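Could you please consider the sequence and fold appended to this message?
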Amino acid sequence: MSKITSVVFDLGNVLIDWNPRYLYRKIFKTETEVEWFLENVCDDAWNTKHDAGQPFSKGISELSSLHPQYSEEIRNWFDRCEEMLGGPLDETVEVLAELKKKRVPLFILSNWSAETYPKAEAIFDFLHWFDGKIISGESGKIKPDAGIYKLLLETYDLVPQNTVFIDDKLANVEAAQDSGIHGIHFQNAALLRNDLEKLELL
């Protein structure tokens, strides 16, 4: 295998603990109500539209017209998005810091709304450690579509065989591998550290 020289990180649930339940447990009284809302109103498909570039103003308006009784709760997804952030995943951030200290080129490839990503960037200092980033909402391309991996490689002149991509979603890792990028399916920081040691990055 070619020597890995660049490392690309996903963010949500790799470096940042993101979960909409952190917010909606404050809004609804029971876990059943929270789960129903996240499965039937603000579901994954709806959120993905914003990660792909749709403005929240449109998404909120459309969904509120379908569920007017939940219009405030729908708007809270955007207005209180910081409350979905549980904090940094410290052990993974430590791995990132070690790579940074070794001067390994570091990049972000994340499915995240262009409107809410700056709020995360203002909270987490380590998001400024990277040499470049591709945010799906800014690019209009989204994982696991092949186009976003192509955009990453072309924007930062990365050689796929010399690049490793870390993501908690297996489909995104497999799509990276289809683009010739070495993939690591993130499960926890200890396993990640082991994988990066095998690649002689740590």
